[in-house]
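for the recovery benchmark. tokens below, seq after
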């Protein structure tokens, strides 16, 4: 930012500036006209609401019911096929289903395939009852034409499909088929059996319409994508172990705004993808599940400036209701080109780029978010961030929480600052929850304004004077909550005078060592704060509802505490042996301690 560059240019004069103009360094100027808003916790953005904006799906309860006496048995004998139905034709090792019905397959087939090519309005069921099918130059299961197709994995069976590294296309213009299971129709996979797919040519499972998965255990290894539904990919349940050279799960219809979405109700997902782990062209909706995702080799991986290797990715909205997420990514761990709503869940994120990035609104309604490593922890490139509830811990090599900072949407490559920062009528709202920030850049960075009405915020900010623990261009209105922010002094700011809760702001003449206790207590010994910053610091901002006007306080440095420490904050203990740095009396909203 330009003001950071300016700060570096005048760094040689900054110590003198501390003593002559503390109020300017601890910038509390919010007198200029700017719209201020208070955003209270509103209703969560729901998956049901998002689903209403998406297209209809092909699911029907009758799809999962059939009469076993109606099954057409097909026995695979290595290089031959045994069947007895006019609905099936066999040519060499190619089995073609020409009429709707339910077909049960068992045995092995070497260099063969199952082809579905029907004109019926009714569905086709393919029941895999312990099969092993290989095809050297095409899809082992090739669905050319059908109303819709159900693939059922018989309980307690193991089924394996594998293809070769090159295909002879049926449709050379569209290069189809191009997956081990390829479908030009709506496709459903379900059951309690297992399916192993070795996709040596391209995708493991690909439908040019929609895919629904309900149950089953899947081990997929694909040269390109793992599971790809063009119109949608819906997972109701299942266990997935996926390794891909492209994306793990993908839905990519970019021609219809009601399509191209992924909806995950539940399941267990282990995905290691060279590209994105889960990628929706429009909405990504997750109700619950257990997710272990690695993209691009994780946070130590290396990708090109044009590549995408995100954990969760959506072109429009990401809505997460719950689940457990362990995401390691060479790109953003969670990314949306529009909005993100986290209603709950437990997240452990390890990212080479941003932890959670939305191009527009990012709202955290609840959840436990632990960002172990990131470039920027939480970022909205062009709109607001709202924290209503939950627990957040984040570590960032640049800004901890950043609004309207440009970021990915401004064209910067992953892992680097992208574009120039902009200032506008954008807000960081903190209404509740617990937020801990350890940032090498700005702790809270608003290229706009900050409104804090509640919650706990702890910031271990930067050590260099080109950044600040708090950094805002507009206003910072604090009306409630608990705030402590320690960092460098060259860019130090405090909440503004429009705040209604009292604030203490200190800038020291010299930097204090990491771990030096800061203690604030009233003259009668009532403790307000005992805090141990994790890094070297030369400024500190503190606000609590317990600070009162007209009361005298002692500001102490060093010493020790018998209390329990959590994220540097001590509680339920006795502070002793420190040195009094200053005494002060609160007379206004912001009290500067020299």
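predicted aa per position
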């Amino acid at each position: 930012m330009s003001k950071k560059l300016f700060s570096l240019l005048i760094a040689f004069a900054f110590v003198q500036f501390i003593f002559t103009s503390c109020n300017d360094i601890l910038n509390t100027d919010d007198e200029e006209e700017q719209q201020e808003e208070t955003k209270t916790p509103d209703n969560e953005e729901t998956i049901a609401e998002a689903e209403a904006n998406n297209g209809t799906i092909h699911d029907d309860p009758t799809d999962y019911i059939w009469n076993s006496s109606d099954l057409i048995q097909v026995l695979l004998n290595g290089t031959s096929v045994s069947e007895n139905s006019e609905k099936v034709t066999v040519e060499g090792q190619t089995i073609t289903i020409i009429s709707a019905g339910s077909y049960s397959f068992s045995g092995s087939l070497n260099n063969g395939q199952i082809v579905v090519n029907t004109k019926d309005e009714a569905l086709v069921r393919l029941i895999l009852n312990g099969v092993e099918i290989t095809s050297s130059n095409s899809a082992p299961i090739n669905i050319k034409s059908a109303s819709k197709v159900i693939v059922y994995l018989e309980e307690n069976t193991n089924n394996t499909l594998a293809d070769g590294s090159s295909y002879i296309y049926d449709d050379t213009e569209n290069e189809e088929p191009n997956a081990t299971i390829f479908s030009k129709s709506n496709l459903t996979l379900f059951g309690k059996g297992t399916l192993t797919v070795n996709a040596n040519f391209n995708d493991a499972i690909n439908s040019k319409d929609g895919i629904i998965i309900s149950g089953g255990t899947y081990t997929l290894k694909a040269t390109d994508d793992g599971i790809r539904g063009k119109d949608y990919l819906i997972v109701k349940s299942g266990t997935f172990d996926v390794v891909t050279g492209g994306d793990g799960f993908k839905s990519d219809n970019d021609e219809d705004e009601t399509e191209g979405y992924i909806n995950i109700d539940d399941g267990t997902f282990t995905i290691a993808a060279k590209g994105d782990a889960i990628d929706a062209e429009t909405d990504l909706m997750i109700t619950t599940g257990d997710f272990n995702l690695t993209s691009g080799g994780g946070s130590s991986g290396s990708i090109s400036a044009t590549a995408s290797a995100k954990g969760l990715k959506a072109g429009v909205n990401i809505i997460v209701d719950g689940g457990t997420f362990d995401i390691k990514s060479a790109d953003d761990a969670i990314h949306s080109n529009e909005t993100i709503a986290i209603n709950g869940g437990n997240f452990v994120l390890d990212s080479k780029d941003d932890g959670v990035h939305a191009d527009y609104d990012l709202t955290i309604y609840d959840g436990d978010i632990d960002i172990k490593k990131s470039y920027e922890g939480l970022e909205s490139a062009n709109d607001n961030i709202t924290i209503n509830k939950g627990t957040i811990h984040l570590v960032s090599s640049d800004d901890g929480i950043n609004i309207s900072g440009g970021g990915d949407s401004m064209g910067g490559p992953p892992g680097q600052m992208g574009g120039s920062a902009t200032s506008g009528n954008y807000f960081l709202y903190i209404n509740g929850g617990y937020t801990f920030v350890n940032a090498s850049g700005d702790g809270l960075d608003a290229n706009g304004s900050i409104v804090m009405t509640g919650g706990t915020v702890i910031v271990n900010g930067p050590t260099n004077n080109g950044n600040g623990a708090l950094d805002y261009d507009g206003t910072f209105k604090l009306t409630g909550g608990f705030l402590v922010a320690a960092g460098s002094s060259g860019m130090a700011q405090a909440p503004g005078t429009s705040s209604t809760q009292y604030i203490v702001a200190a800038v020291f003449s010299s930097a204090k060592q990491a771990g030096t206790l800061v203690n604030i207590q009233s003259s009668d010994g009532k403790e307000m704060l005992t805090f141990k910053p994790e890094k070297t610091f030369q400024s500190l901002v503190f606000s609590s509802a317990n600070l009162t006007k007209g009361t005298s306080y002692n500001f102490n440095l060093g010493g020790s505490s018998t209390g329990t420490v959590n994220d540097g904050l001590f509680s339920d203990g006795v502070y002793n042996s420190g040195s009094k740095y200053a005494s002060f009396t609160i007379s206004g909203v912001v009290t500067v301690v020299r």
